[in-house]
């Protein structure tokens, strides 16, 4: 349940960051808002997952660096799912609503996959 709550928070953060970029720089390419939203979402998600979702203790700087790296690699993998849905919906219907609907669906699927990877390989010392 904590992971699902964290995912909802991060989806909202991601989409809010995208919308902020669109409003601040309306002539910027679509990918600029998507990349910034994804980056903000990753940072927020990692902090929430470590401290609240998995309640993983701090061990050493090297262990933390490894967790961030591994989590980042898994995020790249699942971002392909997210971007595929977001860009696919936008390409098919050509509206902001479709883009955001695709983003929500892609993020949902991506977060399920990422949860399985994080639980088994990133935050495996935690007691959930």
Unreliable stretches (pLDDT < 50, length at least 5) are: none
Instruction: Please count the helical segments.
Output: 4
Number of strands: 0
Cα-to-Cα separation, first versus last residue: 10 Å
Helix content: over 70%
Q: Mean pLDDT, rounded to whole units?
A: 90
Residue fraction in strands? under 5%
Tell me the structural class: mainly alpha
Biggest sheet overview: none
Order of helices and strands: HHHH
Indicate the radius of gyration in whole angstroms. Answer: 15 Å
General form:
elongated
Describe this structure in words.
This protein has helices at 2-24, 30-53, 61-93, 96-122. The chain has 128 residues and is mainly alpha-helical. α1 runs antiparallel to α2, α1 crosses α4 (96-122) and α2 (30-53) packs across α3. The longest helix is centred in the middle third of the chain and has 33 residues, at 61-93. The model has no long low-confidence stretch (mean pLDDT 90).
